[in-house]
Amino acid sequence: MRITDIKATTVTVPLEAPLRHSNGVHWGRFVRTIVEVETDEGITGLGEMGGGGESAKLAFEGLKPYLVGHDPFQLEALRWKISNPTASLYNNRTQLMAAIEFACIDIIGKKLGVPAYQILGGKMRDEVEFASYIFFRYPNEKTGAGEVRTIEQVVDHVAELKAKYGFTSHKLKGGVFHPDYELEVYKAIAAANPKDRYRFDPNAILSVEQSVRFAKAIEGLNNDYLEDPTWGLNGMRKVREKTHLSLATNTVVVNFEQLSANILDPAVDVILLDTTFWGGIRPCIKAAAVCETFQYGVAVHSSGELGIQLSTMLHLGAVLPSMPFAIDAHYHQLTDDIIKGGLMTYENGKIKIPTAPGLGVELDYDKLGQYSELYQELGGYPYDRDPYRKDWYPLLPNMTEHWADPAIVK
């Protein structure tokens, strides 16, 4: 079997409402690039990457000389062709490689008639548990609904998510308002749901001192971990020295060199693996094995996935020996998907692992066309800007005048 072509289509899929974070806003939609890798046996594999537009299309087209004629079973050779360490200094292809690896694993599974988890070592579980992903949100521009800003709105939002999806672990995305206010929010959620588990992620916007104060203030709660309170391995190390909480990251340990540095001089306790950021499912499995050896916890990070990448997260979750934490996903914030059957369904806070060959999902070409046209109409958006705060930009660590005011709607 040989690869004959690769196609990239950028789509934008609406969210329930714009999602606020420490470095900007998701402007009411996610932009993703869907990849189709074709073979001479008529089998097509599916991949997905965050962001997109003409630049993504050109980037994938630029890889055709590497791909056309390659055997999709030869994944290790493909990794060295596309993203060997020296070439990656000049061509940051990690996320491109991830999307292509997804597609090749999909092809292999379809060729062999087995789900991806069979290729990756066999499943350890039939379903994967998810945490709610709680964002402060602006109101939906069209309907005015969906705002999450006040403490009461956040608590009500968590109750709605629990009732609808069955989540019992909750992640609050912070770094928008002053940490004192977000501490009140976090404590209020925990007080309203005393049997559930919690994690807080301000996207590294806090200083070391702010991080330590926040950590000490929540030490009595039922925390999974504190995620990326401050920036950098050294900053995280300073926070870790002064708290009993486990620290987690998806920003400062995202490759094997950083993982080795963290093992030699620990700064974080839980590594949040991301099938895109690490370059595919297989690198995540390799990293998880290293973490298992050195007794580091692992969880799975969300990077704004649609159903194709969500499937890669499910297959990763299926094969990891230990899954002590519910995994993250923005997925319940979406209003639709580009896979057949629409959005995958949660049951008791979990999603069943696909059992069809390959990744176990198929493209809905009507939806692909619909959301490709919507992208052509709306274009992309700057992730690190807030459309309602003119001239605002993030600082790390943030300063008083750069925090949003929780009394202001937008």
UniProtKB/TrEMBL annotation:
Name the UniProt key words of this record, in alphabetical order: Metal-binding
Enzyme Commission numbers on file? 4.2.1.40
Q: What class of enzyme is it?
A: lyase
GO molecular-function annotation terms?
glucarate dehydratase activity; metal ion binding
The protein's annotated catalytic reaction(s) are: D-glucarate = 5-dehydro-4-deoxy-D-glucarate + H2O
Is Ubl conjugation one of the keywords UniProt gives this record?
no
Q: Which residues form the Mandelate racemase/muconate lactonizing enzyme C-terminal domain?
A: 151-246
State the name under which the record lists this protein. glucarate dehydratase
Q: Which Gene3D superfamilies match?
A: Enolase-like C-terminal domain, Enolase-like, N-terminal domain
Which SMART domains has this protein been placed in?
A: MR_MLE
Organism field: Acidaminobacter hydrogenoformans DSM 2784
Which Pfam families does this entry report, sorted A to Z?
MR_MLE_C, MR_MLE_N
